[in-house]
Amino acid sequence: MDFRSFFPIWNKLTAEEQNKIEGAITTRKVEKGTVLHDGSSDCTGLFLIKTGQLRAYILSEEGREVTIYRLFDRDVCLFSASCMMRSIQFDITIEAEKDTEVWVIPVKVYEGIMENSAPVANFTSELMASRLSEAMWLIEQILWKSLDKRVSAFLLEEAIIEESDKLKITHETIANHIGSHREVITRMLKYFQGEGMVKLSRGAIEITDKKKLQRLSD
Description:
With 218 residues, this protein is α+β, with helices and mostly antiparallel strands. The protein contains eight helices and eleven strands. The longest helix has 27 residues, at 118-144. It is elongated. The model has no long low-confidence stretch (mean pLDDT 91).
């Protein structure tokens, strides 16, 4: 697995542009829980995920986190190069949810190519539009969807990601993802358990009635 096969528009670049990127990229390995990017002042560069899983989230003034989107193998993280997007007025933190390996494309190199390459400019615009669309979807969920529906939807999504109904996840982690408080999530999960949808244990949640959880989510 090399960078050429992972970068989505590699074949649309000129030989000169390919050489510039290959000569500038670096590889970074981080452990679960590592913060790779912290706010608009931290212009790290673009991340292309080789293996692992990242989470992009925003932090309120009260210290509450809410996940905007998550990134997996072959995904490109654009907001880690937020200094390219001067119209973005909010800070985003990028954290590793699992042990992760990424390629880092320096901002100056990517920005220089983007200024002269229509395929790169189009790809960047599409990627930004996609991420902002995810952010708008999140806002709609927070404003219009009840907490029980959001928690059930999160558990179902997590089961798909982990390919298991037995989730090693804490109540605080769920709260951080959906922008709530740990105590509130604990009460909600206990209600789910009482309804036979999940089984709770220390540091883990087992989905016991996926169909019922799905109906609640819908």
